[in-house]
Amino acid sequence: MVDAIDISDVKLDLNLRVRDLDIAARWYARVFGVDPIYRGVDRTLEGVATDMVCFRLGGVKVWLLPHRTGANAPPAEQRVGMAFMIRRPLAAVRAHLAGLGVRFDDTPSPGFPINEAGVRVGKDAEFMYVIDPDGHKLEFCFVYPRKD
């Protein structure tokens, strides 16, 4: 089991949900005078893709993601989210946090089933959400190493 989260091995990214990904990406590029550092997709286990664009602003990765719509949309989607990007699988991290009494958001997310360790899995990454005392949902994410 992990004794603590090694904060020196964690990066903080921000996730912003936007109405129109292309309009938002052009706005960020024009206003901040930088090109995106990444434009791609995040995929469910079934291969359903969500487009995303990432900028590095002030040393922080800012991910633009489309609002979810239809049956997969949560009733009150958080527009701004923090993602703690971790360099190792999350099972031990979740066990450690559970031992501290941390609350988790295990609401079903179509295409990202929760494994036996309580971690959501996709084709490209695994993640989990914790809830702080004020109800903010914080994401912990481990991106699988690329197999090129």
User: Which spans of ≥5 residues are poorly predicted at pLDDT below 50?
Assistant: none
- Rg measurement, Å: 16 Å
Q: How many structurally independent domains? A: 1
> What is the overall number of helices?
2
Which CATH class applies here? Alpha Beta
E-strand count: 9
For this structure, the CATH topology is 2,3-Dihydroxybiphenyl 1,2-Dioxygenase, domain 1
One letter per element, helices H and strands E, the order comes to EHEEEEHEEEE
- Nearest-integer average pLDDT: 85
For the largest beta-sheet, the strand count, sense and barrel status come to: 9 strands, mixed
Oligomeric nature of the chains? single chain
Q: Classify the secondary structure makeup into a structural class.
A: mainly beta
User: CATH homologous superfamily - what is it?
Assistant: 2,3-Dihydroxybiphenyl 1,2-Dioxygenase, domain 1
Could you characterize what this model shows?
By secondary structure, the chain is mainly β. The protein has a single domain, classed as 2,3-Dihydroxybiphenyl 1,2-Dioxygenase, domain 1. Helix content is 14%, strand content 39%. It contains two helices and nine strands. A hairpin with a 5-residue loop joins strand 2 and strand 3. The radius of gyration is 16 Å and the shape is globular. The mean pLDDT is 85.
